[in-house]
Design a protein that fits this description.
Distance between the termini of chain B: 73 Å
Helix content of chain A: 40-55%
Structural class of chain B: mainly alpha
Largest sheet of chain A: none
Order of helices and strands of chain B: HHHHHHHHHH
Radius of gyration of chain A: 27 Å
Number of strands of chain A: 0
Largest sheet of chain B: none
Number of strands of chain B: 0
Strand content of chain A: under 5%
Shape of chain B: elongated
Helix content of chain B: 55-70%
Order of helices and strands of chain A: HHHHHHHHHHHHH
Distance between the termini of chain A: 21 Å
Shape of chain A: elongated
Oligomer: heterodimer
């Protein structure tokens, strides 16, 4: 969505406060900001008008201690303090993860999944880059960037990195074991009087990084148990899903 | 505390205090006066000295502290600003119906995150906070409310069926026309119901009228919009 610069938004809201017809005028003048203008007009109407003049609320009394508003101010200030210490205002995902940045912003994984309407399963796969990035809808990338307050490019860069295992799966071997290879090797093993170190070095040479297969976005959707059919249909209808 | 906490955040002789950092805007005279007053105070006491200053002054001070790495000072100033805006924010959020207080708290928390990012930002687009604080606040508040309430409600807007058949208006046009053409009560009732997803009971409570009156507003408003839609046909 195109967003009207703050200066112009202030002008519009002041004008709209005086005369609702201003919406028509601004829509004609700035058609690319249509959705933003309508949104501002709607919310200023339903929340009781705009605060258009500088210093208009200068004399507003501070909240009484222990009042609801006081608690709200304290909560907001605490949230800001946490942000200041977590450094979550950085605009990059480098060295972090989708869920890590969301947590730093005070957004639990469950809520982020709800917000994106993709279910926790798909969100976790996105976080671990287990989905083929070319199949992830552009709209989802944009919504994710908005939610994490990072650039769309930062999200794309993140999604294009190598897939990762869950941190809890760090104990896994470099490659999956198979029963056949283990039995063949056991048959070839000499007596156990001396340890055969060549075997270990051979394994080291043969070992290749464990590569995880990526699913397409639509495969992930179809196997997601925590998404409604309606949400699945909405995302499947997206161009590159 | 290190030495920076004992130094002032501004230099009173700095003529650039009259202009915003990227020099796009000239500050209000009372803000310049307040900034000069703050220039005689050590950074660590700014949040106390600036308690009665304009919020535009406080944002400028917060940014100066943040730029110097005095995050504790910046956070103290943010707390003063939070106290200043709490009533206003609560008034605005209370104007909308919420499923429960937790839902409203989440939105207010999201607003806090956005405000912190705006107040610590050195981006050109956030400079206007130092000129028209309340406008910028309302703007961010509308953004957050729209994002949160909009995504939770799949509202059936009576566009095609009710407003002129195949020549019906788009959703945007529909809101636009409603804004333009209807008396205040009808406009609010229709936008709340069809754009925002309020129940008739919630609208009645908000407008302090009976549910029957709300149904009346909506009925008459739709009649009027339908007439406009028909007129709009080629």
């Amino acid at each position: 969505m195109n967003r009207l610069p703050d200066e112009m938004a202030a002008e519009f809201l002041a004008e709209f406060e005086r005369n609702p017809q201003a919406l028509r005028l601004y829509l004609q003048r700035y058609p690319t900001f249509r959705s933003d203008l309508i949104g501002m007009a709607v919310y200023s109407s339903v929340t009781g008008g705009v605060t258009s003049k500088a210093g208009e609320l200068a004399d507003e009394e501070l909240p009484e201690p222990h009042s609801d508003e006081y608690q709200l101010a304290k909560r907001m200030a605490d949230r800001m303090r946490r942000l200041a210490t977590s450094g979550a205002s950085s605009a990059q995902l480098e060295g972090s993860s989708i869920l890590g940045v969301a947590r730093a912003l005070g957004l639990p994984s469950r809520k982020l999944a709800q917000h994106l309407r993709i279910g926790l399963t798909v969100l976790t796969k996105l976080d671990r880059r287990l989905l083929d990035p070319t199949t992830i809808p552009d709209r989802l990338v944009t919504q994710l960037a908005d939610a994490l307050r990072v650039s769309v490019e930062a999200v794309r860069t993140y999604l294009n990195l190598e897939p990762t295992l869950s941190p809890r799966a760090a104990y896994r071997a470099a490659r999956a074991p198979s029963l056949e290879s283990a039995m063949e090797r056991a048959a070839l093993m000499p007596s156990i009087s001396e340890p055969d170190l060549s075997y270990a070095s051979e394994v080291r040479e043969e070992a290749k990084p464990y590569t995880m297969a990526q699913q397409t976005f639509s495969e992930a959707l179809s196997s997601a148990p925590d998404m409604t059919d309606e949400d699945k249909a909405v995302w499947l209808a997206e161009g590159n899903a | 505390m290190n030495g920076l906490h004992d130094e002032p955040l501004f230099n009173a002789d700095d003529r650039s205090l009259e202009l915003t950092p990227i020099r796009h805007h000239r500050r209000e005279a009372h803000v310049v006066e307040e900034l000069k007053r703050l220039a005689s105070a050590p950074a660590r006491s700014v949040s106390r000295v600036a308690r009665d200053c304009a919020p535009e002054t406080l944002v400028m001070a917060l940014r100066a502290a943040f730029r110097r790495g005095l995050e504790d000072v910046a956070c103290d100033i943010a707390e003063v600003l939070s106290m200043r805006i709490a009533r206003h924010v609560r008034r605005k959020t209370s104007a909308l119906p919420w499923r429960d207080s937790e839902e409203r708290d989440d939105v207010e928390d999201e607003l806090a995150v956005i405000l912190w990012q705006c107040w610590t930002s050195l981006d050109e687009s956030d400079e206007f906070w130092e000129i028209r604080f309340w406008n910028c606040l309302d703007r961010r508040l509308y953004d957050v409310l729209r994002r949160n309430r909009g995504r939770k409600r799949d509202i059936e807007v009576p566009v095609h069926g009710d407003l002129g058949g195949e020549h019906g208006l788009s959703t945007d046009d529909w809101v636009h026309v409603a804004m333009d053409a209807l008396p205040r009560e009808q406009r609010l009732a229709i936008i709340m119901k069809f754009f925002e997803g309020w129940t008739e009971q919630e609208i009645a409570a908000k407008l302090r009228v009976s549910e029957r009156t709300v149904r009346n507003y909506i009925h008459r408003g739709l009649e009027r919009l339908r007439a406009i839609g028909m007129e709009a046909e080629p």
